[in-house]
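INTERNAL AUDIT FORM
Audit reference: QA-55
Scope: verify that the stored structure record matches its stored sequence.
Auditor: D.O.
Record contents follow.
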Amino acid sequence: MRARRWLRLATAVLCGAFLVTLTLVTVIDVIGRYLLSSPLPGASEYTEILLMAIVFVGLPAVCLDDGHISVDLLTAGLRGAAEKLQLMAARLIVSIMLAVVAWQLWKHGSQLASYNEVTVFLRAPLGPFAQVTAVIAGICSLITFVTALLRLPKGDGGGV
């Protein structure tokens, strides 16, 4: 339980820092572009990297909280064993999808790294970014899988 709380706090602080940085990049770019006729060099690349970081750093918290978006039009009336079975099946599907995302991101990152692919302006290598996001997606797949196997109640990331 303590590890879960620490991870939630760490992801919240990191996402907050990335959001503040994203805001600063945007403000500096806009002021530079429209008031000084000198936009922030590489602003679009900073924005892309920060958005990717916000999404993937926040993903483990979503998985721990069982906070994936869901529509229960067909399953709202389920009770008892049927409800638990549906929840477990949904978690397993999410886990499989995250595993596929992780696998494809890793393959893509390896390919980018083999080409020494970099961003246009900043010249930042793209392979490591893709591979770090692949690892995060893989960890999230495991979190969701364990949550499904332990049959935890909805919204209770438990000790995972």
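Auditor finding: record pair retrieved intact. The chain has a mean pLDDT of 87.
Action required: none
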